[in-house]
Specification:
By secondary structure, this protein is an alpha/beta fold. Helices cover 39% and strands 14% of the residues. The chain has 2 domains: 251 residues, Aspartate Aminotransferase, domain 2 (3-Layer(aba) Sandwich), CATH 3.40.640.10; 132 residues, Aspartate Aminotransferase, domain 1. The protein starts with 17 loop residues before the first helix and ends with a helix. Bound molecules: ligand 4LM.
């Protein structure tokens, strides 16, 4: 029996808070036979009304879905929800964070262009640019963007993109989005911020002047370690260009509708999870400072962090990621990681489970040792993604492992 569309009183929609929009934005169960959760459109292709209609969709002369590499109703809902949460006109989903980054950059650059990036990037983003794009005649220039004046000195008419992560993976550098975006705009360069560490709950770079925001949705947006995905958000025209060129023709790395559904489930609890990640990470960072075995703690929530003020200005919390070094260097770091019981040694981050890893030999091993030295990723650094377990259990596990050093 066909379920008639449920009729609802036509009331103007209030301006809902972020937390409410993370659950409801873009979806009305009345449109889907009352289904509380949106259906998953598990289909590769779509049947048009006739040959002319399908042709018109291909020509961009009428809207509609015709192949799921390009668009799909489940992806569309996720994309509209993320755009709403980021304060962007539009969003695009991709098969991974790297899929979002590569589709974006393939769409916006050509040989001879320059991309200015910060000193520190996630290992594969660094490799894609420095070892990959540079082979195609794109110039990659590293600038310490924690000092916006350094960007001012380096930027030129050849600079097409200014790209950074904040907080940066793995060493928690925080970059002033507003200050960098102003300088980039003066030179007609596009500012792209990787907001994976912050999540749109803690930081919305577009509100601070950025043009595009990228996520590894694998991390906090998912929150449950069960998907790989990526998102890019910005002006509708730019996103459409990335969809129809970078995604459709250059990478083909589209998200699965099942992944989109799991991401929407994760995003419903993003605010709750982020509050808890922030609260526990602050406790762990403060406690780590009091331990004899630690030498340096990198967490912008700490008052003595050089990035505390800029983080407080543009983020509503300091996030769940901490980096630190132990007395005893790399040897102590690996011994410590191996002595943990509750905390798992794994790459990735933002999950319910606390994860720990050694960037120099894991996430940032695609930098050469010389590059790691040049860009300030020490061999001693340990990265901790503080999960949702009890903070005292996390600290007790760290404490027992430190006592074994
Ligand atoms: C990790 N990170 O650090 P996909 N941007 C940032 C990231 O941290 C990552 C990506 C993009 C880690 C993966 C193993 C700031 C990934 C790339 O992994 O392609 O979804 O995202 O542990």
């Amino acid at each position: 029996m066909k379920h008639e569309k449920i009729s609802r009183a036509e009331a103007p929609k209030p301006n809902y808070d972020f937390t409410t929009r993370a659950i409801h934005s873009g979806y009305d169960p009345a449109d889907e036979q009352g289904s509380l959760n949106p259906p998953i459109y598990m289909t590769s292709t779509f049947i048009g009304q006739n040959a002319e209609h399908v042709g018109d969709m291909f020509a961009g002369e009428c809207e509609g879905h015709f192949y799921s590499r390009i668009s799909n109703p489940t992806l569309d809902l996720l994309e509209r929800r993320i755009a709403d949460l980021e304060g962007a006109e539009a969003s695009l989903s991709a098969a991974s964070g790297m899929g979002a980054i590569s589709a974006t950059l393939w769409s916006l650059i050509k040989p001879g262009d320059e991309i200015i990036v910060d000193m520190t990037l996630y290992g594969c983003t660094f490799a894609f640019m420095r070892h990959g794009l540079s082979k195609f005649g794109v110039k990659i220039t590293h600038v310490d963007m924690t000092n916006p004046q350094m960007l001012n000195a380096a930027i030129s008419d050849d600079t097409k993109i200014v790209y950074f992560e904040t907080p940066a993976n793995p060493n928690m550098r925080v970059i002033d989005i507003a200050a960098i975006s102003v300088i980039a705009a003066e030179h007609d360069a596009v500012t792209i911020v990787d907001n994976t560490y912050g999540s749109p709950y803690l930081c919305r770079p577009i509100e601070h002047g950025a043009d595009l925001v990228i996520h590894s949705a694998t991390k906090y947006l998912s929150g449950h370690g069960d998907v790989i995905g990526g998102m890019v958000s910005g002006k509708a025209e730019v996103i459409q260009n990335i969809r129809l060129f970078g995604l459709k023709d250059m990478t083909g790395a589209s998200m699965s509708p099942m992944t989109a559904m799991l991401l929407m489930r994760g995003i419903k609890t993003l605010p709750l999870r982020m509050n808890r990640h922030c609260e526990s990470a602050m406790k762990v960072a403060l406690w780590l400072e009091t331990q004899d075995q630690t030498s340096t703690i990198y967490y912008p929530g700490l008052k003595n962090s050089p990035f505390h003020d800029v983080a407080a200005k543009q983020m509503s919390g300091f996030g769940g990621m901490i980096a630190f070094e132990l007395n005893g260097g790399k040897e102590a770091a690996l011994k410590f990681i191996n002595a943990l019981n509750l905390i798992h040694c794994a790459v990735s981050l933002g999950d319910a489970e606390t994860l720990i890893q050694h960037p120099a030999s894991m996430t940032h091993s695609c930098y050469t040792p010389e590059e790691r030295m040049e860009f300030g990723i020490s061999d001693d650094l340990i990265r901790l993604s503080v999960g949702l377990e009890s903070a005292s259990d996390i600290m007790a596990d760290i404490s027992q492992a430190m006592q074994q050093l």
